[in-house]
Sequence to fold (225 residues):
Amino acid sequence: MKNQYFCDVSDYTKYAILRRLSDIPKSIYWMLTSNDNGPDGRRLGYLKKPKETRWLDPELWDKLNVCVQNDQRDLKIIESYIPNLKHSERRVIDNWQERVSISNDFIDKIEPEQLVFLDPDNGYEVPSCPKGQNESCKYVYHSEIKKLIDNSCIVMLFQHKRMGQGVDDMIAEFSDKWKGSHQFSIITSYVVYYFLANCDISWMKEKILPIQNSKPHTRIEIRII
Fold:
C-alpha cells in the first residue's frame, strides 16, 4: 500500500468490502511503502460517475470524493470510516529480522477470530523476490500468513492481478498452496482478495453478496473454492 493509491477505485471497493463486514473486529496491516511517483493510484474516474459508482457505498464515496478534491491522499484518514477496527499497523521493511519483529508485535495484539487484512503493494510472495531481498516489502510471505492462521485469525489478503496470468489460474495456484484454509476469493476490477481461515466463514460471503456486481468500475464477484 502507498498513500498515492489512497482514494483510487481499488481503494473504494476495498473499503466498501471491509465496511460490509462491520460486525467483526478487524486488525489491518497496511504494509505502507513510500510513494514512488509512478502511474498507480490515478484511477479516480469513478468519482466523475456518481450515478454508476456511488451506489456501492454512498457515505464512503462522498468521503473519498472530498479527500480527492482537497488533495488529502493519506491512508490514516480512512481508518475512522472502517467499523470495528481494533488495531492497525503501517510499517514495513525489507530487512527480514526487523520485519519479523514488527509482524510479531502486530500478531500479539490480535485476538482469535479477528479479521486481519493484509495490504501489501503486490500481494502473495513470488519466487523471484525471497524474504529480505530488496522490494520484499511489497509482498506477504507464507510464514506470516501461517502465523495468523495458526492463531485462529481470519485473513483477507490483497493480491494485485498479475500481468500474463489469468485470474482463474491465480486463484487456483493460491488455493493449491492453502488447501483447507483458502475458502473463497473476491474479484474486483483490478484486484483479487483471498479469504483464509481454519473455521467456517461462509457467513462473510452472505454479508458481501448484496454488493456483488459486474459493473466496469465497481466489479465485485465472489468466487467460491
